[in-house]
Specification:
DNA Primase, Chain A, five-stranded mixed sheet, Dna Topoisomerase Vi A Subunit, Chain: A, domain 2, alpha+beta, 10% strand, 16 strands, 27 helices, DNA primase DNAg catalytic core, N-terminal domain, 5 domains
Length: 603
């Protein structure tokens, strides 16, 4: 084993895949394995399985699978070398030049991303240094003190200050031989049109570094201290910064979210800093934009309860509804924290204090249904009989989406008590509305193309899969299959997997699905390995089972050969080549006799 392979294997054995994946997915133990919602596709019931014994993961819904390295590459968009470095740092292992050179940033775009993040890390330190140095940072520090941000939060969020100069950052980047074009693409500096010289985009601003899920700086948000427009200047989208994939403060809030299984969703980064200072350290923000599917998925993976705390104006309420729509399902509890009109979390905490925010806003958050009922109530004049009936219909329509009978009954009882309507009448009306919704949904399903994801594999395919699964767990089984079948598997991916297995054992490697997967470069083969590795099978090898599977594959191969010869014979007859047709018929009869013998031996 080469040195680089030894280091990779050391990393694989030093880390627990459950701990690593558990930072991204909420996992629950089920038998020997752990299950959770797949981070790679949207699903309502968990089909994502992680095996601590094999150090592998596999989704039985979308087919994603692999080991620690492939998971980090998929979830974070890393190259192999980036994933290896990230995991080595976690395991406190020196990767060394032998591995870092392997597969390291061969794509020019990977090199650009690496250097851009290095430049942003340098500038994060530089801006923070400027803020905390009295000679340069007094205007910024004075503003933060007036806004009552404490030193702990300044350090925690690595807040900085951009001095009121046109070339402070540009000069530093040039001095450190950073690629100025990369930093211009990231929106940190820009070029003047008349002489093409670079200048700083952020000047006389408080700098809020924006971090990706791994805690690396990928962008900046700058709040002006003067009259410059815009008031808040943000980095544009770039190779390293995709706003829709990032939740501000997520890397800091993740431990508390996992601990409490609860997240608080805010709108802006100032709100997040203020909330953390108030002790609500499970707070994140969607960066002032509408919540995206990627952001919602990240929250749903690690939290059972999500509290949405947006502004209470019309835009904030509509944004809350949109976010709730994305977050609900999968058994998640969605709540809405109601802010007083005209205040955001930053304003509220400064005015009333952190304890009031925790108890009167976050602690008093309403269930989504209660929030909807209050919202619908505001749209109706309940002293008017017609509006009362419309309000009741509005609420019943919302209740058709409630899956839990207890919740439906609870809200029906509230309606019954408030408007003196019998429970029976309300239940009957709700039932009628639910039936209409179900009919509509069924009609849509009939119109939509039907795609079955639960295909039952034919017997020969199942036989090949079971053989390959056994082969990965036993060299003796692999040798027996090689002698009996060689590469005569039906599908190309099974043929390839068998060939790699034969070579793997010839090199003296032990039966180890994780090690075998690590030696494969093809993602399709890696996914197939994890799928087969997590097939439910007994630990004991049944000789009869192996024999039956081998015979099933042989029978199918012979039957396929006969079918092909039958096709050729018909073509020969149709073209008038009766001599060839007769020869093929003789071969078909001989092949059928052999197939009958195989069947007789098997029976």
């Amino acid at each position: 084993m080469q040195l680089q392979d030894q280091v990779i294997e050391e990393i694989r054995k030093s880390l627990d895949i459950v701990d690593v994946i558990g930072n991204y997915v909420q996992l629950k133990k089920q038998g020997k394995n752990y299950i959770g919602l797949c981070p790679f596709h949207s699903e309502r019931t968990p089909s994502f399985s992680v095996s601590p014994d094999k150090q592998l993961y596999h989704c039985f819904g979308c087919g994603a699978g692999g080991n620690l390295f492939t998971f980090m590459m998929e979830i974070e968009g890393m190259t192999f070398s980036e994933a290896a470095q990230s995991l080595a740092d976690r395991a406190h292992i020196d990767l060394g030049p032998s591995v870092s050179k392997k597969n390291a940033f061969r794509n020019p775009n990977d090199q650009k991303k690496k250097q851009t993040i290095e430049g942003l890390e340098l500038l994060t330190k530089f801006y923070h240094y400027l803020l905390t140095t009295a000679k340069y940072g007094s205007p910024g520090m004075r503003y933060l003190e007036e806004r009552e941000f404490n030193q702990e939060m300044i350090e925690r969020f690595r807040i900085g200050y951009a001095v009121d100069r046109w070339d402070a950052v540009t000069h530093l980047l040039q001095k450190r031989n950073m690629n100025l074009q990369y930093m211009s693409d990231a929106g940190i500096i820009a070029q003047r049109g008349f002489d093409n010289k670079y200048f700083d985009r952020f000047r006389n601003r408080i700098i809020f570094p924006i971090f990706n899920m791994r805690g690396q700086p990928v962008a900046f948000g700058g709040r002006t201290l003067g009259d410059a427009k815009p008031k808040y200047l943000n980095s544009p989208e770039s190779d390293v910064f995709h706003k829709g994939n990032i939740l501000y403060g997520f890397h800091l809030a993740r431990p508390e979210i996992r601990k409490r299984s609860q997240a608080v969703l805010l709108e802006g980064y100032v709100d997040v800093v203020r909330a953390h200072q108030a002790g609500v350290t499970c707070s994140v923000a969607s960066m002032g934009t509408s919540l995206t599917e990627a952001q919602a998925a990240a929250l749903k993976r690690i939290a059972d309860t999500i509290i949405i705390c947006y502004d209470s104006d019309t835009a904030g309420i509509e944004a809350s509804f949109r976010a709730a729509e994305m977050l609900q399902g999968d058994g998640k509890v969605i709540k809405i924290a109601k802010m007083p009109e005209g205040l955001d979390p930053d304003d509220y905490i400064r005015k009333f204090g952190g304890d009031r925010f925790k108890s009167d806003v976050i602690g008093a958050s309403q269930t989504l249904m209660t929030f909807k009922m209050n919202y619908l109530r505001r749209k109706r004049n309940l002293s008017d009989e017609g509006d009362r009936l419309l309000y009741i219909e509005d609420v019943l329509r919302e209740l058709t989406t409630q899956r839990r009978a207890v919740e439906r009954d609870h809200y029906l009882r509230l309606l019954s008590e408030e408007f003196s309507i019998s429970m029976d009448s309300l239940r009957k009306q709700l039932q009628q509305m639910t039936v209409k919704v179900q009919r509509r949904d069924k009609k849509r399903m009939r119109v939509a193309p039907l795609v079955s994801s639960n295909r039952i594999p034919p017997a020969y395919e199942m036989a090949e899969r079971r053989l390959l699964a056994r082969m990965m767990r036993s060299r003796e089984v692999s040798d027996r299959v090689r002698d009996s079948l060689g590469g005569s598997f039906t599908s190309e991916i099974h043929q390839a997997l068998a060939a790699y297995l034969y070579a793997y054992y010839e090199q003296g490697n032990p039966p180890d699905e994780g090690l075998f997967l690590q030696k494969l470069d093809d993602p399709a083969l890696q996914r197939k390995v994890t799928e087969l590795s997590l097939m439910p099978m007994s630990d004991q090898v049944d000789e009869q089972e192996i024999g039956d599977c081998i015979n099933q594959v042989i029978k199918h191969a012979k039957a396929s050969l006969i079918a092909e010869m039958e096709r050729q014979r018909k073509e020969s007859e149709q073209s008038g080549n009766y001599e060839q047709a007769a020869r093929l018929l003789s071969e078909i009869i001989d092949a059928k006799k052999k197939l009958s013998q195989v069947q007789a031996e098997h029976d």
